[in-house]
Amino acid sequence: MKVAVLPLVRKDGQPELARQVYEALRDRVQAEYDEGGAIGRRYRRQDEIGTPWAVTIDHQSLGDRTVTLRDRDSLQQIRVGIDQLGDEIEKRLREPWRSPKLSE
User: What is the 8-class DSSP label of residue 19?
Assistant: First the structure.
């Protein structure tokens, strides 16, 4: 699995938008949809199975069509437009892996 798509909550249209994002991503990369349990537990579950990125759909996503992209190794979180998300993940897949524990 390369990316997990997670709605922050299971209401207010977030699951529906998350499903749309998931459907668009799974044509490009190995993707999983998960809405079960608290968001922290879902992050940990994906971390345990080795999923490098998690995409979170939240209230802001509904208004401006951006999502939070979370990196498993660095725990860095950035906002990315839904339309640019697939390209961003594919770009990250092409980059050589580097341990976040190594200093630059």
Answer: H
In tens digits, the chain (104 residues) has pLDDT values of: 999 999 999 999 999 999 999 999 999 999 999 999 999 999 999 999 999 999 999 999 999 999 999 999 989 999 999 999 999 999 999 998 777 777 55
Q: What is the pTM of this model?
A: 0.91
CA distance 16 to 20: 6
Distances in whole angstroms, Cα of residue 88 to Cα of each of 24, 80, 85: 13, 8, 5
Q: Which residue has the tokens 């998690």?
A: 54
